[in-house]
Specification:
Elements (H helix, E strand, L loop, with lengths): L1 E7 L2 E5 L2 E6 L2 E7 L6 H13 L1 E5 L2 E6 H4 L2 E6 L22
Parallel strand pairs: 4-7
Antiparallel strand pairs: 1-4, 2-3, 5-6
Amino acid sequence: MRVVVQRVARASLTVDGELISKIGRGIVVLTGLQHGDTEADLKWMCNKILNLRLWENDGKTWNRSVKAKEYDILLVSQFTLYATLQRGNKPDFHKAMPP
């Protein structure tokens, strides 16, 4: 499992012009799953994301999590995080879990 976490003031997800979801202050998490990822891996990653210290509090930097601040999370499936570019110019996604 691979994730990319980005702090945001607000974010939205639109597909073919249709708004799928939107959030206020919080994080966007791009998530790539691969063959062999387990439920235990998922639980570990969820706990890690919820408790990442990404915000300051009382002048102390990086000591508050999205969970502690009660901010939003927008989770987006992103199979391209498992792209392999070792051969040729066409990305290979065989390591990514199928939809």
